[in-house]
Amino acid sequence: MSDHHGTIFWTELATRDVAAAREYYAATCGWTYDEMTMQDGGTYVTAMKGEQMVCGIFDMSREPMMAELPPHWSTYIGVEDVDQVVAQAAKRGATVIRPAWDIPHVGRIAIIADPSGAPVGIMTPSE
Fold it and tell me: Which Pfam families match (predicted)?
């Protein structure tokens, strides 16, 4: 991860209509898709451009904490140690929106809002 510390590592679309999003981005960007089953039984879609992973797409209606949010894109910054970076960010005025949690085979993720209020994901990918 050291080569990627501080870089944009992942982005994903939270939507209530995954099928429509897939159709739109396939037609607009030429993406194809792979699917994987999430821990809660939902499906996580990985958009592909050729052999390269582009982003993720998931059904936000399965997430109660997103009930009041509009569909949106989220960005994740890759870091060496999520917990350390979140602690440093909080000392510098960030707000922890969702404390760090682990996603098997993906990594450790936290969601913070920077001092201006802009949310961003912080992520240490699995090895």
Answer: Glyoxalase
